[in-house]
Specification:
Structural class: alpha+beta
Strand order of the largest sheet: 17-16-15-18-19-20
Strand content: 25-35%
Distance between the termini: 28 Å
CATH superfamily of one domain: von Willebrand factor, type A domain
Helix content: 10-25%
Shape: globular
Largest sheet: 6 strands, mixed
CATH class of one domain: Alpha Beta
CATH topology of one domain: Rossmann fold
Radius of gyration: 24 Å
CATH architecture of one domain: 3-Layer(aba) Sandwich
Length: 429
């Protein structure tokens, strides 16, 4: 028999929202009595919080060692004397396990029986909205096989017949199908997940009419002040081009300054704006949302030509691939009859499709004075959502669309959730 040999090969990288564990293959050739399976190197130590007043570190589990079965997780979190730790969020492979609001920050988690890569992440948030985090990675081990673990996150809002959010449901109240096949929900929480929100505001020339841009700015400022301190915002405006920062901000005064600086001019590059905003959010961890305000179709200012380089279908696909929920506000009248330049869709149909398929919602105020109330509804909606996750039984890495159908047992309740996701593409061999 040849001497023992072992080859470890890592395949694939995780994408936001559709999380693929890195895949390792181990080939063994040895005498049966002499075979011993060990990791190539010790597991990495937890990464410490970045320098700052809030710190977090894992006390349990501690490397080295595999994370298997019932696993006790304990996090130590500290902050400056002028504040307290408000809560600790614990994630496993990108899915929220629990939100712990008081010490000891401890829970027991069933990590399963597979020798797969597992990533634990703890985020400590203090009473001033400051954050500190730490990550613990357990490397995978596979014996002569190819395996994949993929978690699909689904964020859902449930409403009664009057449109009021329903917040007292449990995991057993939900059922989920992927391409018609029942799936097992492995993660569930009704605790609010921190948000990264792109406020996407139409600043085309038509927004100058009737003082719409002034009312839009005021409503956007009110919205920014109503979301939770740990939520981050990216303020983007668009006319012929998209303007605004590439990264989200937490500083509310800076956000207000950015909103108040928006001026209306130029055409309406609506599809480009949605595409680029979703692209910027793609690399952000956690819940990602676009709150879109527009008063007209995609069109250049001076010509009867498209305002965007991208098509609507491209913007829609980019939003789906970035795992972004779109809350769309169509401002004005006749949005249901005014067609796009290809004479295929009305603006209402465009906004409805963006919102419905991504897990968001669409609104159609007739007057700009109603914007403040609409933004308040959206802020309340985002605070009343369930987070669910499952490991898809469809293992093919074909990049195809997977349709999701999420339902609740009570027929009097309505579920708002995304319509599907794109599977990872075929990995390089």
């Amino acid at each position: 028999m040849p001497a023992s040999r072992r080859r470890v090969e890592a395949l694939g990288l995780p994408r936001p929202g559709v999380l693929s564990a890195a895949i390792f293959t181990i080939a063994l050739a040895c005498r049966p009595a002499a075979c011993a399976l060990t990791a190539d190197s010790p597991l990495p130590a937890p990464s410490p919080s970045e320098a700052g007043p809030v710190t977090a570190r894992f006390l349990e589990p501690a490397p080295p060692g595999l994370i298997l079965g019932q696993t006790r997780i304990t996090v130590e979190a500290t902050t400056s004397p002028d504040a307290r730790i408000a809560r600790v969020e614990i994630y496993a492979d990108g899915a929220l396990l629990s939100v712990l609001e008081r010490p000891p920050f401890t829970l027991t988690w069933d990590a399963g029986s597979g020798f797969v890569r597992k990533t634990l992440r703890a985020v400590a948030i203090d009473s001033l909205g400051r954050r500190g985090e730490t990550t613990l990675v357990a490397r995978p081990i596979y014996i002569g096989q190819y395996e994949e673990v993929r978690l699909v996150n689904v964020y859902a809002t449930v409403r009664d017949r009057k449109g009021n959010p329903v917040r007292n449901l449990s995991r057993d109240d939900f059922s989920l199908l992927e391409d018609g096949v029942p799936q097992t929900l492995t993660h569930f929480t009704s605790a609010k997940v921190p948000l990264t929100i792109a406020l996407l505001i139409d600043a085309s020339n038509s927004m100058n009419l009737g003082g719409k841009i002034e009312l839009a700015r005021k409503a956007a400022v009110d919205f920014a002040e109503s979301v939770d301190p740990e939520d981050r915002l990216m303020v983007l405006s668009f006319d012929d081009q998209l303007e605004g920062p590439d990264v989200p901000m937490a500083d509310r005064s800076a956000i207000k300054t950015r909103i108040e600086a928006i001026r209306a001019r130029g055409g309406t590059a609506l599809y480009d704006a949605v595409y680029r905003a979703a692209e910027r959010l793609a690399g952000v961890e956690g819940r990602r949302v676009i709150v879109l305000l527009s008063d007209g179709r995609d069109q250049a200012l001076t010509d009867n030509e498209p305002g965007s380089l991208h098509l609507f279908e491209e913007a829609l696909e980019r939003a789906h691939r970035s795992e972004v929920s779109v809350y769309a506000i169509g401002l004005g009248r006749h949005l249901d009859t005014e067609l796009d330049l290809r004479h295929e869709r009305s603006l209402m149909d465009i906004l409805d499709t963006l919102a419905r398929t991504s897990g968001g919602r669409s609104y159609y105020p007739e007057r700009a004075g109603q914007l403040s109330g609409i933004y308040k509804q959206i802020a309340a909606d985002l605070k009343a959502q369930y987070t669910l996750a499952y490991s898809s039984t469809h293992r093919a890495r074909d990049g195809a669309w997977r349709a999701i159908s999420l339902k609740v047992k009570d027929p009097d309740l309505e579920v708002q959730a995304r319509a599907g996701y794109y599977a990872p593409g075929t990995p390089a061999r």
